[in-house]
Specification:
Blueprint (H helix, E strand, L loop, with lengths): L1 E5 L6 H12 L2 E4 H9 L3 H8 L1 H18 L3 E4 L10 H7 L3 E7 L2 H9 L14 H19 L4 E4 L5 H12 L1
Amino acid sequence: MNIVLMGYMGSGKSLIGRDLASKLKLEYLDLDDYIENQEKKSIFKIFEEHGEIYFRKKETFYLKTVLDTFENTIISLGGGTPCFVGNLEAIKEKENAKSLYLHTSLDELTRRLFAERSKRPLISHLNTQEELKDFVRKHLFERSFYYNQADYKISTDQKDANQISEESIAALF
């Protein structure tokens, strides 16, 4: 079985994905890292050189490739992955895949993301916490429809990685 983690950037998908993989003795794959390896350039550089539409097309291609070829893997998606080009449907169609939404509040996301915004192409241009909060609020409004279709939903606020992983395991099994 593959376990697909979704949620907004900063929700902890990579951290929890690695922790779950370790605890469940499964492989771990970060879709953004996989794309960077395949494309031989950073996500930031892909956005910069080709724009978001190009990136989303590549993301869809690599998501389908990963879903078709990997087994017994924890797969962390990019924040926008389930929202574009039938990606959520591709995940839901896979009988060997379960999806898990790591739900994080707007305030917590703003706090986590502000310090690291320079490393994230979608928010690198935002200079104040209020600008970031408005940006995240808009995205959460647009993306919640997709995230909430996950098989399971785990709240991450005021929990450490171990607590979130344990709740995830309890929900999945």
